[in-house]
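Notes from hallway chat w/ T.B., transcribed later so I don't forget. T.B. wanted the structure written out for a chain they're using in a teaching module, and asked if we could keep both sequence and structure tokens in one place. Agreed to drop them here.
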Amino acid sequence: MMRHLFDIVDLSVEEIDELISVANDIIKNPDKYANACNRKKLATLFFEPSTRTRLSFEAAMLELGGSILGFSSANSSSSAKGESVTDTIRTVSCYADIIAMRHPKEGAPVAAARRSLVPIINAGDGGHNHPTQTLADLLTINREKGRFTNLTVGFCGDLKFGRTVHSLVNALSRYEDIKFVFVSPDELKIPKYIKEGVLAKNNIPYVEENRLEGVIPNLDILYMTRVQRERFFNEADYIRLRDCYILDNEKLKLGREDLSVMHPLPRVNEIAVEVDDDPRACYFKQVENGKYIRMALILKLLGVTL
């Protein structure tokens, strides 16, 4: 049966563990996987801008011995002429074996999958979900902490529109002894559907704060996010809120020695460049881990076994 990936909860905890195991094996034994997807094609259909996600999918397929096609902007596809997303997907699925799709509208990958002949991977749909970023985050946590249990995880910045935050909260809520700390301005708080549908439903303890300095000493992981201009309808609100939370070396001194600082990137100025040299900075490790976990996911959805 053909599998798609729309949401991180489409994968069981056991399947996530399996993907992480394969990704770690790819890191250790890259030559073993060099021809795993020979003669297979990945289409990257990005109706919204991306650097890391699109290029990491393409790098992943190339390192598996496959090939790539697609577009990086809706303006360079027939959607600029008015073609529907479902027709685009139906067409491209005639040419490719698997599709990674990013779209600004929530639920677009689900609609697209109804017409697709091949597996669809949601590479981000609006402010809703970003499951492969979550897989990259989980692989990073696994490699840095060695566990998904007994963790206090802080999220800071735009928690209302941050799809990476929503997906990671969903994923971590399935593990034991997890606590969340949400740090944001009132206008960008974690949305009600996460509080009620995920946290309350699973009896996950959480607190909401306005200041980072007061909570950073208690965190195992600090997940920073940018205030996203493209999610605002009002430019004045964006300008007022974008510099609310900036992590610099002074604030980082308050954190534990084993704190892991994560960020889905791109950053604007919410993490000072001086933090990059701190051994607790993990965000560029996330970038690299994203390639390996996407390699594992492509293998799984294509049913390729070695």
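Follow-up for T.B.: The first strand starts at residue 41 and ends at 46. Might be a good example for the class.
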